[in-house]
Inverse folding.
Protein backbone atom coordinates (compact mmCIF):
# COMPACT_ATOMS: atom_id res chain seq x y z
CA UNK A 1 0.00 0.00 0.00
CA UNK A 2 2.88 2.36 0.75
CA UNK A 3 4.11 1.98 -2.82
CA UNK A 4 0.78 2.93 -4.38
CA UNK A 5 0.31 5.77 -1.92
CA UNK A 6 3.72 7.16 -2.88
CA UNK A 7 2.91 6.91 -6.57
CA UNK A 8 -0.36 8.73 -5.94
CA UNK A 9 1.48 11.47 -4.05
CA UNK A 10 4.05 11.86 -6.85
CA UNK A 11 1.61 11.96 -9.71
CA UNK A 12 -1.33 13.80 -8.18
CA UNK A 13 -0.62 15.35 -4.84
CA UNK A 14 2.82 16.90 -4.97
CA UNK A 15 2.71 20.50 -6.05
CA UNK A 16 6.01 22.05 -6.98
CA UNK A 17 5.70 25.71 -7.71
CA UNK A 18 8.24 28.19 -9.01
CA UNK A 19 5.69 30.90 -9.40
CA UNK A 20 5.55 34.08 -7.33
CA UNK A 21 2.73 36.42 -6.30
CA UNK A 22 2.41 40.03 -7.26
CA UNK A 23 0.02 42.81 -6.43
CA UNK A 24 0.17 43.97 -10.08
CA UNK A 25 -2.50 41.73 -11.52
CA UNK A 26 -4.41 44.00 -13.86
CA UNK A 27 -3.80 44.01 -17.57
CA UNK A 28 -3.12 47.74 -17.56
CA UNK A 29 -0.43 47.51 -14.86
CA UNK A 30 1.33 44.42 -16.14
CA UNK A 31 4.56 44.60 -18.15
CA UNK A 32 7.58 42.35 -18.71
CA UNK A 33 10.93 42.35 -20.48
CA UNK A 34 11.42 40.75 -23.85
CA UNK A 35 14.63 38.97 -24.89
CA UNK A 36 16.19 42.26 -25.95
CA UNK A 37 15.57 43.83 -22.56
CA UNK A 38 12.68 45.98 -23.77
CA UNK A 39 9.50 46.41 -21.78
CA UNK A 40 6.53 44.74 -23.45
CA UNK A 41 2.91 45.46 -22.54
CA UNK A 42 0.65 42.43 -22.58
CA UNK A 43 -2.20 44.05 -24.49
CA UNK A 44 -4.64 41.70 -26.23
CA UNK A 45 -3.55 40.71 -29.77
CA UNK A 46 -0.52 43.00 -29.64
CA UNK A 47 3.15 42.76 -28.66
CA UNK A 48 5.17 45.95 -28.43
CA UNK A 49 7.89 46.17 -31.04
CA UNK A 50 6.25 43.58 -33.29
CA UNK A 51 3.34 43.66 -35.70
CA UNK A 52 0.94 40.93 -34.65
CA UNK A 53 -2.24 40.55 -36.62
CA UNK A 54 -5.23 38.93 -34.97
CA UNK A 55 -6.05 35.45 -36.31
CA UNK A 56 -7.91 35.78 -39.59
CA UNK A 57 -9.44 32.60 -40.94
CA UNK A 58 -12.89 32.22 -42.37
CA UNK A 59 -14.99 29.61 -40.50
CA UNK A 60 -16.40 26.88 -42.70
CA UNK A 61 -19.92 25.76 -41.80
CA UNK A 62 -20.40 22.08 -41.04
CA UNK A 63 -23.90 20.70 -41.55
CA UNK A 64 -24.78 17.84 -39.17
CA UNK A 65 -24.88 15.26 -41.98
CA UNK A 66 -21.50 16.15 -43.48
CA UNK A 67 -17.89 16.19 -42.34
CA UNK A 68 -15.29 18.83 -43.14
CA UNK A 69 -12.48 17.99 -45.56
CA UNK A 70 -9.47 19.40 -47.34
CA UNK A 71 -6.74 20.94 -45.39
CA UNK A 72 -2.37 18.17 -46.16
CA UNK A 73 0.30 16.67 -44.21
CA UNK A 74 0.04 17.83 -40.60
CA UNK A 75 -0.06 16.76 -36.99
CA UNK A 76 -2.90 15.86 -34.66
CA UNK A 77 -2.92 15.98 -30.87
CA UNK A 78 -5.46 15.66 -28.12
CA UNK A 79 -5.39 16.72 -24.49
CA UNK A 80 -8.22 16.31 -22.00
CA UNK A 81 -10.79 15.65 -24.72
CA UNK A 82 -9.78 18.61 -26.90
CA UNK A 83 -8.40 17.80 -30.35
CA UNK A 84 -6.16 20.00 -32.52
CA UNK A 85 -5.09 19.54 -36.14
CA UNK A 86 -2.28 21.62 -37.59
CA UNK A 87 -2.07 21.67 -41.37
CA UNK A 88 0.94 21.91 -43.64
CA UNK A 89 -0.09 25.50 -44.41
CA UNK A 90 -0.05 26.40 -40.73
CA UNK A 91 -3.81 26.59 -40.17
CA UNK A 92 -4.83 25.39 -36.71
CA UNK A 93 -8.19 23.66 -36.30
CA UNK A 94 -9.81 22.45 -33.08
CA UNK A 95 -12.81 20.50 -31.85
CA UNK A 96 -14.04 18.63 -28.75
CA UNK A 97 -14.09 19.70 -25.09
CA UNK A 98 -14.00 23.45 -24.52
CA UNK A 99 -15.27 24.20 -20.99
CA UNK A 100 -12.39 26.61 -20.29
CA UNK A 101 -12.05 28.08 -23.78
CA UNK A 102 -9.04 25.85 -24.49
CA UNK A 103 -10.02 25.41 -28.15
CA UNK A 104 -9.47 29.11 -28.80
CA UNK A 105 -12.56 29.53 -30.97
CA UNK A 106 -14.12 32.38 -28.98
CA UNK A 107 -16.61 30.31 -26.98
CA UNK A 108 -16.65 27.87 -24.06
CA UNK A 109 -19.01 25.43 -25.79
CA UNK A 110 -18.21 21.90 -26.95
CA UNK A 111 -17.94 21.58 -30.72
CA UNK A 112 -18.37 18.34 -32.65
CA UNK A 113 -16.65 19.40 -35.86
CA UNK A 114 -13.32 21.03 -36.82
CA UNK A 115 -13.33 24.78 -36.32
CA UNK A 116 -10.52 27.11 -37.50
CA UNK A 117 -8.57 28.82 -34.71
CA UNK A 118 -5.75 30.80 -36.33
CA UNK A 119 -3.29 30.73 -39.22
CA UNK A 120 0.49 30.82 -39.69
CA UNK A 121 0.96 28.39 -36.79
CA UNK A 122 4.26 26.54 -36.51
CA UNK A 123 3.64 24.37 -33.43
CA UNK A 124 0.78 23.83 -30.99
CA UNK A 125 1.09 22.63 -27.41
CA UNK A 126 -2.15 21.83 -25.56
CA UNK A 127 -1.93 21.29 -21.82
CA UNK A 128 -5.25 20.15 -20.35
CA UNK A 129 -7.20 23.42 -20.04
CA UNK A 130 -4.55 25.70 -21.59
CA UNK A 131 -3.19 25.83 -25.12
CA UNK A 132 -0.02 27.47 -26.47
CA UNK A 133 0.87 28.04 -30.12
CA UNK A 134 4.02 29.42 -31.75
CA UNK A 135 3.49 31.17 -35.08
CA UNK A 136 5.84 31.39 -38.04
CA UNK A 137 7.00 34.81 -36.83
CA UNK A 138 7.93 33.23 -33.46
CA UNK A 139 5.14 34.99 -31.57
CA UNK A 140 3.80 32.88 -28.68
CA UNK A 141 0.03 32.83 -28.32
CA UNK A 142 -1.88 31.46 -25.33
CA UNK A 143 -5.49 30.80 -24.40
CA UNK A 144 -7.71 28.78 -22.05
CA UNK A 145 -8.04 28.48 -18.28
CA UNK A 146 -6.16 31.17 -16.35
CA UNK A 147 -7.72 31.63 -12.90
CA UNK A 148 -4.49 30.48 -11.21
CA UNK A 149 -2.53 32.38 -13.89
CA UNK A 150 -0.80 29.48 -15.73
CA UNK A 151 -0.81 31.43 -19.01
CA UNK A 152 1.75 33.84 -17.61
CA UNK A 153 0.00 36.99 -18.85
CA UNK A 154 -0.18 38.65 -15.42
CA UNK A 155 -3.97 38.33 -15.15
CA UNK A 156 -6.59 35.89 -13.90
CA UNK A 157 -8.63 36.24 -17.09
CA UNK A 158 -9.73 33.07 -18.86
CA UNK A 159 -9.16 33.48 -22.57
CA UNK A 160 -11.30 31.79 -25.21
CA UNK A 161 -9.34 33.36 -28.08
CA UNK A 162 -5.60 33.39 -28.88
CA UNK A 163 -3.68 36.07 -26.98
CA UNK A 164 -0.23 37.33 -28.04
CA UNK A 165 2.03 36.69 -25.08
CA UNK A 166 5.68 36.87 -26.09
CA UNK A 167 7.95 37.18 -29.13
CA UNK A 168 11.06 35.34 -30.37
CA UNK A 169 9.79 31.99 -29.03
CA UNK A 170 11.03 28.69 -30.47
CA UNK A 171 9.44 26.01 -28.26
CA UNK A 172 7.03 25.56 -25.34
CA UNK A 173 7.10 23.01 -22.49
CA UNK A 174 4.27 22.24 -20.08
CA UNK A 175 5.66 21.05 -16.75
CA UNK A 176 3.64 20.50 -13.59
CA UNK A 177 4.13 23.64 -11.55
CA UNK A 178 4.97 25.91 -14.47
CA UNK A 179 5.07 26.43 -18.23
CA UNK A 180 8.42 27.12 -19.91
CA UNK A 181 9.54 28.54 -23.26
CA UNK A 182 12.87 28.69 -25.08
CA UNK A 183 13.46 31.74 -27.27
CA UNK A 184 15.59 32.18 -30.39
CA UNK A 185 18.49 33.37 -28.23
CA UNK A 186 18.53 30.06 -26.28
CA UNK A 187 17.09 31.62 -23.14
CA UNK A 188 14.76 29.46 -21.05
CA UNK A 189 11.85 31.43 -19.58
CA UNK A 190 9.30 30.38 -16.99
CA UNK A 191 5.77 31.74 -17.33
CA UNK A 192 5.18 32.95 -13.80
CA UNK A 193 2.03 34.56 -12.45
CA UNK A 194 3.42 38.02 -13.11
CA UNK A 195 4.70 37.15 -16.59
CA UNK A 196 7.70 35.53 -18.32
CA UNK A 197 10.90 35.49 -16.24
CA UNK A 198 14.38 34.36 -17.32
CA UNK A 199 15.16 30.96 -15.77
CA UNK A 200 18.38 29.78 -17.46
CA UNK A 201 20.48 30.98 -20.41
CA UNK A 202 22.18 29.15 -23.30
CA UNK A 203 19.57 26.36 -23.27
CA UNK A 204 19.28 24.04 -26.28
CA UNK A 205 16.36 21.90 -25.07
CA UNK A 206 14.32 21.00 -22.01
CA UNK A 207 12.91 17.71 -20.68
CA UNK A 208 10.39 17.34 -17.90
CA UNK A 209 8.89 14.41 -16.01
CA UNK A 210 6.27 14.53 -13.29
CA UNK A 211 7.54 17.09 -10.74
CA UNK A 212 11.05 17.56 -12.13
CA UNK A 213 12.66 19.44 -15.01
CA UNK A 214 15.97 19.20 -16.90
CA UNK A 215 17.66 21.59 -19.31
CA UNK A 216 20.54 20.77 -21.66
CA UNK A 217 22.60 23.84 -22.54
CA UNK A 218 24.23 24.60 -25.87
CA UNK A 219 27.58 23.35 -24.52
CA UNK A 220 26.11 20.05 -23.20
CA UNK A 221 25.66 20.92 -19.53
CA UNK A 222 22.72 19.22 -17.79
CA UNK A 223 20.82 21.23 -15.17
CA UNK A 224 17.90 20.07 -12.99
CA UNK A 225 15.23 21.52 -10.71
CA UNK A 226 12.10 20.33 -8.93
CA UNK A 227 11.54 17.53 -6.42
CA UNK A 228 14.50 15.35 -5.44
CA UNK A 229 12.34 12.36 -4.61
CA UNK A 230 14.51 9.21 -4.92
CA UNK A 231 17.50 11.44 -5.76
CA UNK A 232 16.23 12.21 -9.27
CA UNK A 233 17.80 15.69 -9.37
CA UNK A 234 21.14 13.92 -9.79
CA UNK A 235 23.11 16.75 -8.16
CA UNK A 236 24.09 14.76 -5.03
CA UNK A 237 21.73 16.86 -2.91
CA UNK A 238 19.71 15.36 0.00
CA UNK A 239 16.83 13.11 -1.01
CA UNK A 240 13.48 14.85 -0.64
CA UNK A 241 14.88 18.33 -1.27
CA UNK A 242 13.03 20.58 -3.72
CA UNK A 243 14.88 23.12 -5.86
CA UNK A 244 13.27 26.17 -7.43
CA UNK A 245 16.47 27.18 -9.16
CA UNK A 246 18.44 25.05 -11.67
CA UNK A 247 21.31 22.98 -10.27
CA UNK A 248 24.23 21.58 -12.30
CA UNK A 249 24.26 17.78 -12.79
CA UNK A 250 26.88 16.75 -15.40
CA UNK A 251 28.56 17.72 -18.68
CA UNK A 252 28.62 16.54 -22.32
CA UNK A 253 24.95 15.47 -22.34
CA UNK A 254 22.96 15.23 -25.57
CA UNK A 255 19.83 13.46 -24.33
CA UNK A 256 18.00 12.84 -21.05
CA UNK A 257 14.95 10.75 -20.12
CA UNK A 258 13.14 11.53 -16.83
CA UNK A 259 10.77 8.95 -15.35
CA UNK A 260 8.78 8.47 -12.15
CA UNK A 261 11.59 6.92 -10.10
CA UNK A 262 14.77 7.26 -12.17
CA UNK A 263 16.59 9.37 -14.78
CA UNK A 264 18.86 8.37 -17.69
CA UNK A 265 21.28 10.56 -19.66
CA UNK A 266 23.31 9.90 -22.81
CA UNK A 267 26.56 11.79 -23.41
CA UNK A 268 28.23 12.93 -26.64
CA UNK A 269 30.39 9.80 -26.77
CA UNK A 270 27.44 7.44 -26.22
CA UNK A 271 27.86 6.76 -22.52
CA UNK A 272 24.66 5.95 -20.62
CA UNK A 273 24.40 7.35 -17.10
CA UNK A 274 21.60 6.81 -14.56
CA UNK A 275 20.45 7.92 -11.11
CA UNK A 276 17.41 7.66 -8.84
CA UNK A 277 15.53 4.80 -7.15
CA UNK A 278 17.15 1.40 -7.50
CA UNK A 279 16.17 -0.54 -4.38
CA UNK A 280 13.40 -1.61 -2.04
CA UNK A 281 9.72 -1.36 -2.89
CA UNK A 282 10.29 1.54 -5.31
CA UNK A 283 13.36 0.12 -7.06
CA UNK A 284 13.79 -2.86 -9.34
CA UNK A 285 17.48 -2.64 -10.18
CA UNK A 286 16.31 -0.43 -13.04
CA UNK A 287 19.46 1.69 -13.08
CA UNK A 288 21.41 -1.24 -14.52
CA UNK A 289 24.54 -0.66 -12.43
CA UNK A 290 24.55 -4.20 -10.98
CA UNK A 291 23.44 -3.04 -7.53
CA UNK A 292 20.27 -2.27 -5.62
CA UNK A 293 21.60 1.01 -4.23
CA UNK A 294 19.74 4.29 -4.60
CA UNK A 295 21.79 6.90 -6.46
CA UNK A 296 21.38 10.67 -6.07
CA UNK A 297 24.24 11.28 -8.52
CA UNK A 298 24.97 9.91 -12.03
CA UNK A 299 26.57 6.46 -12.37
CA UNK A 300 27.88 5.10 -15.67
CA UNK A 301 25.96 2.09 -17.02
CA UNK A 302 27.22 1.21 -20.53
CA UNK A 303 28.83 2.60 -23.69
CA UNK A 304 27.77 3.27 -27.30
CA UNK A 305 24.11 3.93 -26.48
CA UNK A 306 21.83 5.64 -29.01
CA UNK A 307 18.56 5.67 -27.03
CA UNK A 308 17.02 4.43 -23.79
CA UNK A 309 13.45 3.99 -22.63
CA UNK A 310 11.17 2.48 -20.02
CA UNK A 311 7.65 3.04 -18.74
CA UNK A 312 6.59 4.07 -15.24
CA UNK A 313 6.90 2.48 -12.79
CA UNK A 314 10.31 1.48 -14.15
CA UNK A 315 10.34 -2.30 -13.69
CA UNK A 316 12.54 -2.84 -16.73
CA UNK A 317 14.66 -0.67 -19.03
CA UNK A 318 15.82 -1.12 -22.62
CA UNK A 319 18.74 0.60 -24.36
CA UNK A 320 19.53 0.58 -28.09
CA UNK A 321 23.23 0.71 -28.94
CA UNK A 322 24.72 2.48 -31.93
CA UNK A 323 25.42 -0.87 -33.63
CA UNK A 324 21.74 -1.86 -33.51
CA UNK A 325 21.95 -4.16 -30.49
CA UNK A 326 19.04 -3.96 -28.04
CA UNK A 327 19.90 -4.54 -24.36
CA UNK A 328 17.62 -4.79 -21.34
CA UNK A 329 17.64 -5.13 -17.55
CA UNK A 330 15.34 -5.13 -14.51
CA UNK A 331 12.34 -7.21 -13.43
CA UNK A 332 11.73 -10.31 -15.54
CA UNK A 333 9.16 -12.35 -13.63
CA UNK A 334 7.21 -13.28 -16.77
CA UNK A 335 10.01 -13.20 -19.33
CA UNK A 336 9.25 -9.60 -20.33
CA UNK A 337 12.91 -8.76 -20.90
CA UNK A 338 13.08 -11.13 -23.86
CA UNK A 339 16.32 -12.83 -22.82
CA UNK A 340 14.65 -16.26 -22.73
CA UNK A 341 14.65 -16.44 -18.92
CA UNK A 342 12.52 -15.33 -15.99
CA UNK A 343 15.54 -14.15 -14.00
CA UNK A 344 15.95 -10.66 -12.57
CA UNK A 345 18.76 -8.77 -14.31
CA UNK A 346 20.55 -5.93 -12.50
CA UNK A 347 23.06 -5.58 -15.36
CA UNK A 348 22.28 -5.04 -19.06
CA UNK A 349 21.86 -8.25 -21.10
CA UNK A 350 21.62 -8.54 -24.93
CA UNK A 351 18.12 -9.07 -26.34
CA UNK A 352 18.10 -8.62 -30.14
CA UNK A 353 20.36 -7.30 -32.92
CA UNK A 354 19.81 -5.19 -36.06
CA UNK A 355 17.19 -3.10 -34.25
CA UNK A 356 16.29 0.38 -35.51
CA UNK A 357 13.54 1.20 -32.98
CA UNK A 358 11.86 -0.39 -29.97
CA UNK A 359 8.65 0.01 -27.98
CA UNK A 360 8.35 -0.68 -24.25
CA UNK A 361 5.15 -1.79 -22.54
CA UNK A 362 4.08 -2.95 -19.11
CA UNK A 363 4.06 -6.65 -20.03
CA UNK A 364 4.86 -6.68 -23.77
CA UNK A 365 7.65 -5.19 -25.86
CA UNK A 366 8.34 -4.82 -29.58
CA UNK A 367 11.31 -4.07 -31.83
CA UNK A 368 11.49 -3.07 -35.50
CA UNK A 369 14.58 -4.46 -37.24
CA UNK A 370 16.53 -3.06 -40.18
CA UNK A 371 14.93 -5.58 -42.56
CA UNK A 372 11.47 -4.13 -41.69
CA UNK A 373 10.42 -7.15 -39.64
CA UNK A 374 8.50 -6.56 -36.41
CA UNK A 375 9.45 -8.69 -33.41
CA UNK A 376 7.71 -9.02 -30.06
CA UNK A 377 7.95 -10.73 -26.67
CA UNK A 378 5.42 -10.68 -23.88
CA UNK A 379 3.58 -12.47 -21.08
CA UNK A 380 0.24 -10.97 -22.14
CA UNK A 381 -2.72 -12.80 -23.65
CA UNK A 382 -2.02 -11.46 -27.15
CA UNK A 383 1.58 -12.74 -27.33
CA UNK A 384 3.07 -15.27 -24.89
CA UNK A 385 6.73 -15.44 -25.90
CA UNK A 386 9.81 -15.13 -23.65
CA UNK A 387 12.13 -14.81 -26.64
CA UNK A 388 11.80 -12.19 -29.41
CA UNK A 389 9.50 -13.64 -32.07
CA UNK A 390 8.82 -12.28 -35.55
CA UNK A 391 5.16 -11.30 -35.84
CA UNK A 392 5.05 -9.23 -39.06
CA UNK A 393 7.14 -8.26 -42.08
CA UNK A 394 7.41 -5.27 -44.41
CA UNK A 395 6.63 -2.94 -41.48
CA UNK A 396 7.83 0.66 -41.74
CA UNK A 397 6.16 2.06 -38.64
CA UNK A 398 4.79 0.63 -35.39
CA UNK A 399 3.07 2.29 -32.46
CA UNK A 400 1.20 1.21 -29.36
CA UNK A 401 -0.84 2.58 -26.49
CA UNK A 402 -1.28 0.29 -23.49
CA UNK A 403 -2.34 -3.03 -25.06
CA UNK A 404 -3.50 -1.73 -28.44
CA UNK A 405 -1.09 -2.06 -31.38
CA UNK A 406 -0.82 -0.64 -34.91
CA UNK A 407 1.61 -1.39 -37.74
CA UNK A 408 1.94 0.43 -41.06
CA UNK A 409 3.38 -1.71 -43.87
CA UNK A 410 5.48 -0.60 -46.85
CA UNK A 411 2.32 -0.72 -48.97
CA UNK A 412 0.63 1.81 -46.66
CA UNK A 413 -1.74 -0.80 -45.22
CA UNK A 414 -2.58 -0.28 -41.56
CA UNK A 415 -3.03 -3.34 -39.31
CA UNK A 416 -4.24 -3.47 -35.71
CA UNK A 417 -4.56 -5.95 -32.83
CA UNK A 418 -4.89 -6.05 -29.04
CA UNK A 419 -7.52 -4.55 -26.75
CA UNK A 420 -10.62 -3.15 -28.44
CA UNK A 421 -13.02 -2.07 -25.71
CA UNK A 422 -13.63 1.33 -27.38
CA UNK A 423 -13.56 0.05 -30.93
CA UNK A 424 -10.07 1.48 -31.48
CA UNK A 425 -8.97 -1.42 -33.70
CA UNK A 426 -11.23 0.02 -36.40
CA UNK A 427 -12.82 -3.31 -37.36
CA UNK A 428 -16.38 -2.33 -36.41
CA UNK A 429 -16.37 -4.47 -33.26
CA UNK A 430 -15.21 -4.32 -29.64
CA UNK A 431 -13.62 -7.78 -29.74
CA UNK A 432 -9.96 -8.03 -28.80
CA UNK A 433 -7.51 -9.71 -31.19
CA UNK A 434 -4.18 -11.49 -30.91
CA UNK A 435 -1.44 -10.65 -33.41
CA UNK A 436 -2.43 -13.79 -35.33
CA UNK A 437 -5.88 -12.22 -35.75
CA UNK A 438 -4.72 -8.72 -36.63
CA UNK A 439 -7.09 -6.83 -38.86
CA UNK A 440 -6.44 -4.66 -41.91
CA UNK A 441 -7.95 -1.29 -41.05
CA UNK A 442 -7.34 0.74 -44.21
CA UNK A 443 -4.78 1.50 -46.91
CA UNK A 444 -2.52 4.38 -48.03
CA UNK A 445 -1.74 5.39 -44.43
CA UNK A 446 1.31 7.61 -43.84
CA UNK A 447 0.92 8.45 -40.14
CA UNK A 448 -1.18 7.46 -37.13
CA UNK A 449 -1.95 9.02 -33.75
CA UNK A 450 -3.31 7.20 -30.68
CA UNK A 451 -5.00 9.71 -28.40
CA UNK A 452 -6.92 10.10 -25.17
CA UNK A 453 -6.34 6.88 -23.20
CA UNK A 454 -6.85 4.41 -26.06
CA UNK A 455 -10.26 5.86 -26.90
CA UNK A 456 -9.51 7.61 -30.20
CA UNK A 457 -7.29 6.92 -33.20
CA UNK A 458 -6.46 9.34 -36.03
CA UNK A 459 -4.73 8.44 -39.28
CA UNK A 460 -3.56 10.54 -42.24
CA UNK A 461 -3.59 8.95 -45.68
CA UNK A 462 -1.42 9.68 -48.70
CA UNK A 463 -4.06 12.01 -50.14
CA UNK A 464 -3.83 14.11 -46.95
CA UNK A 465 -7.23 13.11 -45.56
CA UNK A 466 -7.58 12.84 -41.79
CA UNK A 467 -9.52 9.79 -40.62
CA UNK A 468 -10.74 8.91 -37.12
CA UNK A 469 -12.30 6.03 -35.21
CA UNK A 470 -12.72 4.74 -31.67
CA UNK A 471 -15.17 5.72 -28.96
CA UNK A 472 -17.32 7.79 -31.35
CA UNK A 473 -17.12 5.55 -34.42
CA UNK A 474 -15.83 1.97 -34.63
CA UNK A 475 -14.79 2.14 -38.29
CA UNK A 476 -12.67 4.86 -39.93
CA UNK A 477 -14.54 7.99 -41.02
CA UNK A 478 -13.18 11.00 -42.88
CA UNK A 479 -12.82 14.09 -40.70
CA UNK A 480 -11.02 16.59 -42.90
CA UNK A 481 -8.25 16.87 -45.44
CA UNK A 482 -5.15 18.71 -44.38
CA UNK A 483 -4.55 20.75 -47.54
CA UNK A 484 -6.24 23.81 -48.99
CA UNK A 485 -9.03 25.84 -47.42
CA UNK A 486 -11.57 23.09 -46.86
CA UNK A 487 -14.56 21.54 -48.56
CA UNK A 488 -17.38 19.22 -47.58
CA UNK A 489 -17.32 15.44 -47.98
CA UNK A 490 -19.91 12.83 -47.15
CA UNK A 491 -18.63 10.63 -44.26
CA UNK A 492 -17.35 7.21 -45.23
CA UNK A 493 -18.36 4.14 -43.26
CA UNK A 494 -16.14 1.70 -45.11
CA UNK A 495 -12.67 0.36 -44.38
CA UNK A 496 -11.52 1.32 -47.89
Amino acid sequence: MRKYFAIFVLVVGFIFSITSCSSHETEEEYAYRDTNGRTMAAAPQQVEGATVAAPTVTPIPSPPNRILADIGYATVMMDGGSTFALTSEGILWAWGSNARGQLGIGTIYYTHYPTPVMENVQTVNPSWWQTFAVCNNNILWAWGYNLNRPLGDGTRVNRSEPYALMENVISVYNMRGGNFVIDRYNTLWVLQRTGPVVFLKNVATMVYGYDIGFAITTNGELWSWGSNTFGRLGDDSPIGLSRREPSFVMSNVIHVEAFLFSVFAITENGELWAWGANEGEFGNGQLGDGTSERRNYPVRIMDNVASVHTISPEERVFALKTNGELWGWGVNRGGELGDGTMEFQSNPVPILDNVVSFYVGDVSNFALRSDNTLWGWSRSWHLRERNPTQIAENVVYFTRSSNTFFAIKESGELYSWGNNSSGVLGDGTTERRTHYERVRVMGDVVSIYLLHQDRHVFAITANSVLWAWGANQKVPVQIMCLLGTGRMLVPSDTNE
Summary: The two ends are 49 Å apart (CA to CA). The chain has one helix and 40 strands. The helical segments are 2-13.
